[in-house]
Design goal:
- The protein is of the alpha+beta class and 339 residues long.
- It folds into two domains: 85 residues; 233 residues, BirA Bifunctional Protein, domain 2 (2-Layer Sandwich).
- The chain has eleven helices and ten strands.
- Strands 1-5-6-10-9-8-7 form a seven-stranded mixed β-sheet, with helices on both faces. It has a three-stranded antiparallel β-sheet with strand order 2-4-3.
- Helix 1 packs parallel to helix 4.
- It binds phenylalanine (PHE).
- Phenylalanine binds next to strand 9 and strand 10.
């Protein structure tokens, strides 16, 4: 008899249930009116006196085991139900945040895209250069102030190794390795020894263009730049060319575009002139062609160079240059790229 009760205890201890109905069945089976425990109690009177104590204790142990089992099963069932209720499987997942292109890259890509539509191909050159590619090969006189320590970051002296101060250096590399016709675009970083302020930085970006072929004229240059200005700043944009000087172009000019902000009427951005300066340009100086082994009697060419930060400032009306270099995501997040 006692053995049988112990078996029931084991059975109760090992019992597990998947749902509340199974627990209820288990309860009725043991604790119900016709259940095992009631049956055992009703047999209590037939138990010999000396066994009554043992018998009673074991039945009680069975009863407690069953009750404890029911409570613990009910608790764990409630826990899993709660978990299931708090799990909303229809909820959309976490979104991955997409980065944005840097505003300087956006503007650089836009410039490259505009010129590639009329046949310009991109070439790149080194940022660390020698004197020949940055100055001498571009017809800079020996005493030109741009060679001065104030402008140029020198890495070594005699022979001079330096950081390029303009992307015109890539012109020289291209003329060394390619024969005309040449129609190339050189985007890249340049370095000048300037104090950092809202208007100047020691690192900035330029895009340079070079076109060399037979019969290239100033009219071709002007038409190319007009096309660029209209694509970049809008169909209504007008351009004007002011005479200027660069050692590597003759004649040289600076190009202004009509101010996009005020439409040419005059505002703070264009300093009430109605015009904005955007690039330098000119016909490639015959000396440059000759020193790079291109026959200047047969070939002519034009070149132009623009500052990417300057165009970004005009495009986005962000007039503190430093913001483009600080990598503050609150600033960068505002730019959306089409390129
Ligand atoms: N290299 C010149 C500058 O840095 C720009 C330029 C390029 C001018 C090509 C004329 C022709 O200011």
């Amino acid at each position: 008899m006692l053995e049988e009760i112990k078996k029931l205890i084991k059975e109760a201890e090992q019992f597990s249930a998947k749902n509340i109905e199974e627990i209820e069945k288990f309860r009725i089976n043991f604790l119900g009116k016709k259940g095992e425990i009631t049956k055992l109690f009703s047999e209590f009177k037939n138990v010999p006196v000396e066994q009554k104590k043992d018998f009673g204790q074991t039945i009680n142990k069975l009863k407690n085991t069953v009750i404890e089992k029911i409570t613990s099963l009910k608790n764990s069932l409630e826990d899993t139900q709660q978990q299931q209720n708090s799990l909303d499987l229809s909820m959309s997942g976490d979104t991955t945040e997409l980065g944005t292109r840097h505003p300087i890259s956006i503007v650089r890509n836009e410039i490259v895209d505009i010129f590639s539509r009329i046949g310009f191909v991109v070439s790149e050159g080194p940022e660390i250069e020698d004197d020949w590619h940055v100055f001498s090969g571009l017809n800079f006189p020996e005493e030109h102030p741009a060679r001065d320590m104030q402008d140029t970051f020198f890495i070594e002296k005699d022979p001079d190794i330096l950081l390029r101060t303009h992307t015109s250096s890539v012109q020289v590399h291209v003329m060394e390795t390619q024969k005309p016709p040449i129609r190339s675009l050189f985007p890249g970083r340049v370095f000048r020894n300037e104090a950092i302020s809202a208007r100047a930085h020691c690192i900035f970006h330029q895009v340079e263009g070079l076109y060399i072929d037979e019969n290239v004229s100033f009219t071709d240059l002007k038409q190319t730049l007009l096309y660029f200005a209209r694509e970049m700043f809008g169909k209504e944009t007008k351009i004007r060319l002011r005479p200027s000087y660069f050692p590597f172009t003759e004649p040289s000019a600076e190009m202004d575009v009509t101010c996009k902000i005020c439409g040419g009427k005059g505002c703070n951005v264009c300093k009430h002139t109605g015009w904005l300066e955007v690039l330098g340009c000119g016909m490639v100086d015959p000396n440059v062609l000759e020193s790079n082994n291109i026959d200047s009697k047969k070939y002519t060419g034009f070149a132009f160079g623009m500052g990417v930060e300057r165009l970004a400032m005009l495009k986005y009306q962000v007039n503190d240059l430093r913001l483009y270099f600080e990598n503050d995501v609150r600033f960068l997040r505002q730019f959306k790229a089409a390129y």
